[in-house]
Write a structure and sequence with these properties.
Elements (H helix, E strand, L loop, with lengths): L13 E5 L4 H11 L5 E5 L8
Length: 51
C-alpha cells in the first residue's frame, strides 16, 4: 500500500488561517511560520455561546 503525499509550494504565498487561536489553527500557524510565505493573516472568531 502506498501513501500519497501532497506537496504544496507555499513560497511567496499569502495565507489566511481561520481559527488560528485554537489547537489545530495555532499548530498550523506555527508550521507556516517555518515556511517561506509572504504573509500569514490569522482570523480569530470569538464564539459568544461558549463560556
Amino acid at each position: 500500500m502506498h501513501i500519497n503525499e501532497v506537496v504544496i509550494n507555499l513560497k511567496n504565498k499569502r495565507l489566511l488561517v481561520i481559527g488560528g487561536a485554537g489547537l489545530i489553527g495555532s499548530h498550523t500557524v506555527d508550521e507556516l511560520i517555518k515556511e517561506d510565505v509572504a504573509e500569514i493573516r490569522i482570523l480569530t472568531v470569538r464564539d459568544s455561546v461558549s463560556r
